[in-house]
Structure formats: structure tokens, C-alpha cells
């Protein structure tokens, strides 16, 4: 794999997964190692819609959006490894396990999401991942999640 293939910028991410504003929660994916592991980057900004209500006086990124951002990172990793650009890749949660939140994520933070495949293979539909999200090296969230990957998507 060349260096260019180990990174997905926002344009490539949009070619791999269907999420769009306000629910596209990963800005870049780096260190993509096939279907094994990857690192997602999310720049947390005050102008994200969830901060209007969670919580206006003390904005905190909701834990469920942190987990969703890790799942989007995993979907980009698998989609990139399988060459699924422009193929209507859809991914659905099946389970979320062992979730722990250790630190608040607030506007101005850079969320770094490391995901690793625990189970899954090219051509398979059910994949399990482990994820860790950190800010400045400090653990914010750790979780395991299982997803069904529809390799044909809505347009197949």
C-alpha cells in the first residue's frame, strides 16, 4: 500500500460512507493498515449542533457521538481496504459493549480515535471492532462494537 492509500481525507471519506453534516463525525483517517487498524481524527468545534443542547453553558460532546465517530472511522478503514469508494457502503450497529467514558470532550479538543478489527474478513458482513478515543494522550472513551457491513449498499 502506498502512503496515499493509508490516509483518507474528507473527500475520500465522503466517497466511502454516506454520512453528511451534521452527522459526519470524522475529519480524516490516517494510518490505515488494511482491515486491521486505523486512526480517525475529529476536530471538535463549538459550532456543532449537539452543543446547542448538550449543554449550552458547559458544552460536552455526547458519548454516543464519540462512539459513532469511532464506528465511522472503522467503516472508512474497511471501505478503503476493500476499495469501496463510490459503492454505497452502508454500516449498521449490531451491538455496543464495554463502553467506558473517562474524560469529557469539549470544543477545541482534537479527538484521536484508534480502531482495531477484532473479527471480520473481506467479503464478510459482520465485523467486531475495539476503539479508543483520546485527547492529548488522555483516554476519553473505550468501547467494543459490532457492525453489519452492507457491501452492496442501497444502490446495489
Could you provide a short overview of the structure?
With 156 residues, the chain is α+β, with helices and mostly antiparallel strands.
So how many helices? 2
* Beta-strand residue percentage: 35-45%
Distance between the termini: 27 Å
| SSE run | HEEHEEEE
CATH class: Alpha Beta
Determine the fraction of residues in helical runs and give it as a percent range.
10-25%
Parts with pLDDT < 50 across at least 5 consecutive residues: none
Radius of gyration: 15 Å
In the CATH hierarchy, the third-tier topology is known as Thiol Ester Dehydrase, Chain A
Helix and strand composition category: alpha+beta
The CATH architecture can be given as: Roll
Sheet with the most strands: spatial strand order: 1-2-4-5-6-3
Quote the average pLDDT. 93
Main sheet properties:
6 strands, antiparallel
Report on the structure:
- 30% of the residues are buried.
- The two termini are 27 Å apart.
- 17% of the residues lie in helices and 37% in strands.
- The longest helix is centred in the middle third of the chain and has 19 residues, at 63-81.
- A 6-stranded antiparallel β-sheet has the order 1-2-4-5-6-3, covered by helices on one side.
- The model has no long low-confidence stretch (mean pLDDT 93).
- The radius of gyration is 15 Å and the shape is globular.
- The protein contains 2 helices and 6 strands, in the order αββαββββ.
- It has one domain (3-150): Roll (Thiol Ester Dehydrase, Chain A).
- The protein has helices spanning 10-16, 63-81; strands spanning 28-33, 37-43, 90-101, 110-119, 126-135, 138-150.
- With 156 residues, the chain is α+β, with helices and mostly antiparallel strands.
